[in-house]
Automatic annotation (TrEMBL):
Native source organism of the sequence: Spongiivirga citrea
Domain of life assignment: Bacteria
Protein name: PAS domain-containing protein
Occurrences of domain PAS fold-3 (ranges): 34-107
Stored InterPro entries: PAS-like_dom_sf, PAS_fold_3
Pfam family, one: PAS_3
Length: 133
């Protein structure tokens, strides 16, 4: 059992991209109770900063993409649908645009909050290659 736990932890740590748990409540509170190490690289802030409040991560979303992303989040929250969305975040240090794709499966654990378990991948290289070829 211990070996399985260590293996799973290593997979989550080493996998490219981000494995995450996202929570949103009727009160409007959003948080990431769990994110893998890749989250730090994309959002340039230690993941622990997002456990109780996701607003700092959400503030990195490209202004042109924010409204559509949040609409999709709330739509999936209300309907219980699987969440899939492609959007951009802006690096706070380099101002570089990073393209991300999120796929997450919802789970309702109480009527006031929704929770998703998902994966976030960096599509930047693929999009830049497509746009410049």
């Amino acid at each position: 059992m211990i070996d399985e736990k260590i293996s799973l932890e290593k997979i989550v740590e080493k996998i490219p991209g981000v494995v995450f748990q996202f929570e949103i409540c009727n009160s409007g509170i959003t948080r990431f109770p769990f994110v893998s190490k890749g989250f730090d690289d994309i959002f340039e802030v230690p993941a622990d900063n997002f456990k109780e409040n996701a607003s700092l991560a959400l503030s990195r979303i490209h202004p042109e993409d924010y409204q559509a992303l949040m609409y999709n989040v709330f739509d999936c929250y209300k309907s219980g649908k699987t969440f899939t969305h492609t959007f951009r975040v802006v690096s706070s240090t380099t101002k570089k645009t990073i393209w991300l794709k999120i796929s997450a499966i919802p789970e309702s654990y109480n009527p006031n909050c929704g929770i998703w378990f998902g994966y976030m991948s960096d599509l930047t290289n693929e999009i830049e290659k497509y746009n410049f070829s």
